[in-house]
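Researcher: Here's the sequence for the chain we discussed earlier.
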Amino acid sequence: MKRIKQVILKLLDRMLNKKNFKIVPFYQYEGQLEIVKYDWIKKLNIETIIDVGASYGQYSTKARSLFTNSTIFAFEPLPESFEKLKKSFSKDAKFFPFQIAMSNLVGEVNFFKNQHVGASSLLEMTNLHKVAHPYSKNYDKIIVKSNTLDNFFKNRKLENNILLKLDVQGAESSVLEGATDLLKKVRLIYSEISFNELYEGQMFITEIIYYLKNFGFRFVGIEDVSQSLKDGVFLQGNAFFIKDE
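Model: Thanks. This is the structure I predict for it:
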């Protein structure tokens, strides 16, 4: 059987070589891709980054490596995460952190603070999430300050080519509802999306695609897709939406 597989692979390799194609190991492909993976984003010359659900600053750190001179506004409501966020960027003169949740309301909102901080949300978790990630089933209900992106940036001048990043654990609809004016200025959106209901009342990927299409955005790609270790059900991913010039 092993000999047969080798013969088949050699024949296939010869056929592909005639058409200037080549078989390479998957890990080799991944290594080559990593070098150019975000070149298409760099070409957009992003000058302003709005990081909603900034947590400790994981995405802001990545964004800063791609856009060294951009201005970053980062929003994180949880006190512990916010302190780590501030500390991580304490020497970055173009980084502006704010301890507040972004939603469709100005004032205060209920917030579900999860024992696994990354699962915290404006929305309550569904049973599917608890089964897929049992370490995140416990939470406390707290009150945090809230604002809308439109209200926050109403009197603030923003540089061109805005990147809006959303990692709000199912609360994308609330944030987007409060950003109808801002979306007119945004060039690229990087948002966590869900294939199944992980938080009560959340948008699914198809709904987000349709909603953003009304603002001129098209869905262009997805990465970091996760599945349940219990039964393989697709859970989440991170999607890119671009507005063509």
